[in-house]
């Protein structure tokens, strides 16, 4: 596009739906775009074009090479090689043009000579021979003329395209140079702003002090250059005021019951959880004994070393590339893999234990919504990148004795990077998901788009919930303090009852008067009637309020009528655990994250805990970790090349070749979403029982 793009969507994984005669809905990951055509015919043309583009995008994605180190930035030698190739091509074209002129010249001379010969007085037999030669020369000339014309056409075409390619190459070079200069200029401006701020003591003394950590981070964010405002434009469809207004009913209308005994649940404080009018007692019925851990696990890891690194030298060659294709030193990582980060979603598993005991599916939906939000609570300070898992890498988390669940992850695809996850709990629920991480470095910020659906099924009721994750954005990649934002919409659907929950993650805006990291939501029945309002922040807590009355209110900013909901006072659904002591020196890991890489006996030989570069990084030996990381990636590349060679041989011989197949998961079409995804096929925990890991590949 010649002008600034409003946003991007990955067509390879997008869903294309039609709402009515003229509307098209495009959704992928946490993003949804609503497009409107002027006529039904035009809409159909767009749908056809989008479907064709989607098919092409899928083909392109499948054709891409699959490794992190394969895409090297264009070096000076590459550039000179391109220039040399172009020069050779031009000289060859000149040679062709010269040959063209010579053939024409010599052909004409030959024809003249033959004509002169024919005019001479010679015996009859000689005349016949000369006539035959003349005819052959004429044929040769006709053929030469045809070739000359074809060469001329080719020359014209080559010159036209050569000019076009040169223009395109020149444009790309100018754009890259311009981008580099802009970012360098930004870095200089940022430094001068910092100096100016330090040299102005009057401004510092007059600024209000920040009493808490959250306020401090908010204030420091506002003190940085306000160039983030142009990013808010990216989410403009979500920045309008909420589509409803909540009014709390008077306290006298409520009948409070005694506090529950959930002191061991998410909030960690007895007063955080109440049995009340809108949570049935069955949801709260759990004995404190079940929540007592039986094994003492580690509560700290070695402090993060303070190594300096020239970020700009690495990042300037990464603009516009897929993050998984950039060879990164471990300095940007945290000592956990993506599989372990995925397992961290289970930090507040007790919300699902509680939801499994709910009689009301709407109350259950509130707890499922709180669980979906809680998975983002650990990300607020976690700006480091997890390790990209190797193909076939696994991670298990066996908490059967303590909390009644077992979790298994496996890296099922390396490009695009995809991980399959399966959790089964003895407390009445099963969760599974396949997540593909799409990420783009945009120069100023990094967008991380998790693609794929999360499924949750409760055994007793058969309620089957499906939702998708929102987009995460890491800001200030080049200059300033890194910070993370979550934005987008989550729709949770109970496919058995057709009840829904619409959650909205509001993007951070410098000028907004709302609480940062705000999340709001509405739980509705199958007929669209709202029953609960959800509110809170993704980094702290979520509350629910039962709706007692709803009515149409006044018009909003766009002329649409807003719903006014009268609710009971809000009740706490979930509250974040405080971070462990000294967390700022331990990568801001939560209590669960600190235990994830702890060595355990009997795990598979492909388990992330046994990955050597990750272990060296955790121990603070970063130089050795970088060397080990390169060795592992080269080993993976060699295996991939061997697999490609085997596939090529099989194709030549006309044999069927079965590509890489994951060990513990298999691909099937989901009956609920209609998507093809990897699901657990069983056998892992039985293999662990027997300690038989003979099928595991040698990846470390």
UniProtKB/TrEMBL annotation:
Signal peptide: none annotated. GO terms for cellular component: cytosol; perinuclear endoplasmic reticulum; plasma membrane. It is a peripheral membrane protein. Residues 169-196 form a coiled coil. It comes from the Eukaryota. Its main location: membrane. Pfam families: Oxysterol_BP. Residues 61-81, 199-303, 611-630 are annotated as: Disordered. One of its GO terms (biological process) is lipid transport. Residues 64-73, 225-239 have a biased composition (Acidic residues). InterPro entries: OSBP_sf, Oxysterol-bd, Oxysterol-bd_CS, PH-like_dom_sf, PH_domain. GO terms for molecular function: cholesterol binding. Residues 203-215 have a biased composition (Polar residues). Residues 1-55 form the PH domain. The keyword RNA-binding does not apply. The keyword DNA damage does not apply. SUPFAM superfamilies: Oxysterol-binding protein-like, PH domain-like. It is found in: Membrane. Keywords: Coiled coil, Lipid transport, Lipid-binding, Membrane, Phosphoprotein, Transport. Belongs to the OSBP family. This is Oxysterol-binding protein.
């Amino acid at each position: 596009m010649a002008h600034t793009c409003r946003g991007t969507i990955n067509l390879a994984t997008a869903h294309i739906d039609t709402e009515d005669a003229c509307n098209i809905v495009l959704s992928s990951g946490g993003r949804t775009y609503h497009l409107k055509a002027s006529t039904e015919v035009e809409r159909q043309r767009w749908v056809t074009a989008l479907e064709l583009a989607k098919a092409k995008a899928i083909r392109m994605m499948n054709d891409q090479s699959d490794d992190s180190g394969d895409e090297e930035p264009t070096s000076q030698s590459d550039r000179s090689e391109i220039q040399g190739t172009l020069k050779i091509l031009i000289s060859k074209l000149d040679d062709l043009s010269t040959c063209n002129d010579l053939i024409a010249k010599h052909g004409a001379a030959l024809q003249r000579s033959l004509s002169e010969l024919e005019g001479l007085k010679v015996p009859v037999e000689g005349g016949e021979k000369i006539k035959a030669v003349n005819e052959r020369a004429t044929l040769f000339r006709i053929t030469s003329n045809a070739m000359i014309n074809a060469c001329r056409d080719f020359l014209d075409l080559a010159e036209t395209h050569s000019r076009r390619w040169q223009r395109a190459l020149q444009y790309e070079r100018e754009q890259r140079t311009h981008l580099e200069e802009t970012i360098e200029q930004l870095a200089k401006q940022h430094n001068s702003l910092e100096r100016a701020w330090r040299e102005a003591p009057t401004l510092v003394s007059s600024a209000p002090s920040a009493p808490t950590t959250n306020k401090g981070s908010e204030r420091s964010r506002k003190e940085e250059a306000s160039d983030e405002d142009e990013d808010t434009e990216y989410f403009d469809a979500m920045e309008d005021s909420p589509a409803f207004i909540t009014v709390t009913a008077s306290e006298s209308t409520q009948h409070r019951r005694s506090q529950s005994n959930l002191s061991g649940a998410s909030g960690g404080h007895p007063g955080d959880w109440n049995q009340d009018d809108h949570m049935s007692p069955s949801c709260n019925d759990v004995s404190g004994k079940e929540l007592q851990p039986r094994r003492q696990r580690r509560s700290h890891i070695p402090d993060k070393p303070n190594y300096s690194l020239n970020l700009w030298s690495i990042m300037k060659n990464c603009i516009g590339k897929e993050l998984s294709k950039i060879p990164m030193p471990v300095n940007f990582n945290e000592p956990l893999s993506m599989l372990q980060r995925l397992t961290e979603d289970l930090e507040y598993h007790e919300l699902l234990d509680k939801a499994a005991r709910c009689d009301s599916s709407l109350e259950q939906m509130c707890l499922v919504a709180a669980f979906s939000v809680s998975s983002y609570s650990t990300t607020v300070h976690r700006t480091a990148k997890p390790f990209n898992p190797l193909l076939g890498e696994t991670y298990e988390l066996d908490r059967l004795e303590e909390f009644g669940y077992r979790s298994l992850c496996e890296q099922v695809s390396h490009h695009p990077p995809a991980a399959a996850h399966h959790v089964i709990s003895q407390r009445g629920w099963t969760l599974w998901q396949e997540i593909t991480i799409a990420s783009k470095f945009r120069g100023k910020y990094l967008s991380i788009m998790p693609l794929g659906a999360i499924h949750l099924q409760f055994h007793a009721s058969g309620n089957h919930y499906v939702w998708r994750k929102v987009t995460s954005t890491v800001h200030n990649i080049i200059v300033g303090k890194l910070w993370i934002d979550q934005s987008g919409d989550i729709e949770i659907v109970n496919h058995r009852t057709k009840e829904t929950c619409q959650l909205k993650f509001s993007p951070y805006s410098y000028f907004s008067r709302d609480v940062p990291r705000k999340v709001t939501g509405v739980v509705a029945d199958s007929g669209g009637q709202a029953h609960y309002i959800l509110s809170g922040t993704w980094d702290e807590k979520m509350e629910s309020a039962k709706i007692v009355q709803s009515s149409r209110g006044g018009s909003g900013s766009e002329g649409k009528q807003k719903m006014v909901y009268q609710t009971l006072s809000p009740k706490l659904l979930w509250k974040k655990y405080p971070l462990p002591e000294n967390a700022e020196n331990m990568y801001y890991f939560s209590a669960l994250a600190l235990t994830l890489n702890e060595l355990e006996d009997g795990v598979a030989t492909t388990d992330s805990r046994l990955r050597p570069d990750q272990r060296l990084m955790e121990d603070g030996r970063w130089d050795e970790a970088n060397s080990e990381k390169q060795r592992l990636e080269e080993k993976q590349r060699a295996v991939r090349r061997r697999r490609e060679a085997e596939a090529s041989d099989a194709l030549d011989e006309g044999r069927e070749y079965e590509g890489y197949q994951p060990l513990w998961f298999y691909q099937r079409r989901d009956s609920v979403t209609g998507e093809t995804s990897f699901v657990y096929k069983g056998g892992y925990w039985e293999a662990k029982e027997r300690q038989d890991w003979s099928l595991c590949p040698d990846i470390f």
